[in-house]
Amino acid sequence: MPDPTDPLRAALPPGMSLQDAAIRLANGVCAAYAAYNNGSNQDPQLDGYKWFTPIWVFQSDPNVVPWPLAAAAEVVSSAVSPRPKVAVPRVVAAYASGDGSSPTCTGPLPLGKPWPGSQLFGFTATADDDSHNIFVLRGTVTMEEAGYDLFGWGTKTPCQLPSQSSEQLTYGMVNHDLYAFYIYNNFGVVTSLATSCMKAIANTAPDRPWLMGSHSLGGAMLSLAALDGVVSNAFGKYNPLVMTFGSLHVGDGTFAQAYMAQVPASGRVANLCDFVPSMVSIEPVTPTDPYVHVGIPGTFVWQTWDDWGNHHLPSIYMKMVNWHWDLIKWGPRNYPQ
């Protein structure tokens, strides 16, 4: 019986285990959170890596939900604000922990304050031994990003990748607002996340295997960026290894099929108690669930009895790949009906 992780192992750099790759990627995503540092936008640092290229996303006002609806602001505020009689604060994904401890994916204290403009969203780098490159994206931190997490479900748009300017193909349908977050450039006035991703890949050492990882909202963006990079031949002869942690959906079944045909070495690590991977709306949409995850699922159960705590990168996902790797089940699960 074939191992469901065989496609992932095929893309590993020589001598590296899949667990080692997962640990490197989880640490890299943590470093991306730390470099952003709530708006400080510091230089990325990650042990074992050199030649860092930051990845940026423009936000008109990171402290405000980008929808002119009182109801939208109320929903986002309730999702990220403390609630009575709960020991663990409801804070955005980077700074929430299941046990109430201090966050570990932050830079020096005090934390910064987000201001309108370009926000550090990730980075690329090259291993010190030149064996591979790494590409990582963080998840939700700002109120504006929280809005993209929660809204736009049920409204889809054709996925036409920015790198394909000469012969534009459509890769299924994707969430309208998540796609807008990826391609937004204000009519060429600002650099889009898509352009920043492709420039970072181009500025990283060529002819090396790629490890790509992300958390939360970053997982949806990584799905777009990895596909964008593969179809534009940005990675050269290497097919990247992609691994997301607690990722959002981004597209429909046609998108998922197109993605997996191009990026087969993709894994999706998800806590079955984490609400983010299963979130497709705060309101019912039609059809009920038009979104399909990409990647070979690697799932586990870790219940903290706290919604953000179940999603936390350091307390859940980093601990799983470091200390409980054998408890991650790879491949589809069958549930009793």
Describe the protein in words:
- This protein has helices spanning 6-10, 18-36, 70-80, 143-150, 176-183, 193-202, 217-231, 253-262, 313-323; strands at 49-59, 117-127, 133-137, 156-158, 173-175, 210-215, 241-245, 266-271, 296-300, 329-330.
- It is α/β, with parallel strands linked by helices and 337 residues long.
- The protein has a single domain, classed as Alpha/Beta hydrolase fold, catalytic domain (Rossmann fold).
- An eight-stranded mixed beta sheet has the order 1-2-3-6-7-8-9-10, sandwiched between helices. Strands 4-5 form a two-stranded antiparallel sheet.
- Strand 7 (241-245), helix 8 (253-262) and strand 8 (266-271) form a beta-alpha-beta unit.
- Helix 2 (18-36) packs antiparallel against helix 9 (313-323) and helix 3 crosses helix 4.
- The protein is globular, with a radius of gyration of 18 Å.
- It starts with 5 loop residues before the first helix and ends in a 7-residue tail after the last strand.
- The model is unreliable at 69-73 and 75-100 (pLDDT under 50).
